[in-house]
Amino acid sequence: MAEPQATARARGTRLAFADGIRGLAALWVVLFHASEGGHVDHLKAVLPAWFSRLVFDWGHLGVALFFVLSGFVMMHSVRGLAFNAGMGRRFMLRRLLRLTPPYYAAIAFVIGYAVLKAVLQHQPAPLPGAGAVVAHLLYLQDILALDTISVVFWTLCIEIQFYIAFTLLMLARHHASRRWGERKATLLALAGAALVGLPWAFGILSVPLYPGGFLSFWYCFMLGVLVSAQAERSALRAVFFGFVALLVAAGAATGSGVAWAALAGTALIYVGTRSAWLDRLLNLRALQYLGLVSYSLYLTHNQITGATQTVFKRLIGPSALGELALLGATIVACVLFASLCHWVVERPNIEWSRRIRLTPAGRDGVKRGV
Questions:
Q1: Staple partner for 299: which of 32, 106, 244, 321, CB 3.0–4.6 Å?
Q2: How far apart (Å, rounded) are the C-alpha atoms in residues 106 and 314?
Q3: Cβ pair 267, 17 in contact under 8 A
């Protein structure tokens, strides 16, 4: 079967249109936290209400885009491969190597920032306890209901659970294929996994089965999995479009912004794999660079936003124009610091992770690395 157009238009080992969406999502989250911090109140007051809500108030929904992209990338990275136990171990190791070192560096940065801020303000340093630090290192802080070191770290706990659940799902598909064949096993595994998230999408269940659980957002992840899988297998298109229709109904019934944001992200991916004009639009250099540094940007932007505002806000009067200028400076500062983190910490780990082949040497002829 021919590879999807998304693969054909992948830039190097990266999917260009996916990076564009990731860059938009990261910027959206930055704008949301700038608003939450009260840094753009005067600016928002002079903007149309709908524009202010879209750009600032709804920016937290960028997380839903990240979850959809995560599912898309996971499924894309294992396309056409027999996902046995050995591959499952390599897959988890590869993902952990991508996620963890920048996360650990961000933990150290956030703690160091809090200490420096306390010293400069002549206040006691709010150091987390050893148990909280260990829980963060193991991605368990939300599951153990501990105070978080940074408000953005909760999504990493969810991501790790996605990795584990996806690995188990692919292993189940592999074992089922021995009995029913690969085509039927894939259809049953993905359709069944998608249905698991529907009670949360429809609001039948409002909380996960345990604190910090991933099931509340599983349907977002499965949207990404299915939009990738249907491009490879026409038999899955009915499952994909059926799942989308159910989530449209869920969004209409519950008014969930998460559901609508996830559907919008899925639509962008779907069109991006098939439309040259959207692919070119999302391949703009600025968006591609934001996508490149988006992980580091997400992990560190809150502290850099606070520092930039503290240093420069006293120089600019409380006006809409002044807040607009300061917002621009804040975004630049966040991107510059994220760039430093990306090239010093994140980039080497990306290179190391690429050395972990998902299949033994000589048996994997498709480029990986997304």
A1: 106
A2: 28
A3: no
47 touches 57 (CB < 8 A) = no
Note if the pTM is more than 0.85.
Answer: yes
Phi-psi region of 213 (alpha: psi -120 to 50; beta: other; left: phi over 0): beta
Tokens of 182: 């690969």
Looking up tokens 């021995």 gives 178
Rounded to 5 degrees, what are φ and ψ at 75?
-70, -40
The residue among 343, 338, 316 whose CA lies nearest residue 327 is 316
Alpha helices in the chain (DSSP H): 5-8, 16-36, 41-46, 49-52, 62-77, 85-120, 130-137, 154-180, 182-196, 198-201, 218-232, 237-254, 257-272, 276-282, 285-292, 294-312, 320-341, 347-354
User: By CB neighbour count within 10 A (0-12 exposed, 13-18 middle, 19+ buried), where does 226 fall?
Assistant: buried
Region class of 146: left (phi > 0), else alpha (psi between -120 and 50), else beta = beta
Residue among 232, 291, 227, 271 at smallest CA distance from 15: 291
Residue labelled with tokens 């599951």:
143
Among 255, 226, 225, which residue's Cα sits nearest to residue 242?
226
Chain-centre distance for alpha carbon 225: 13
Taking the C-alpha atoms of residue 104 and residue 97, their distance in angstroms, rounded to an integer, is 11
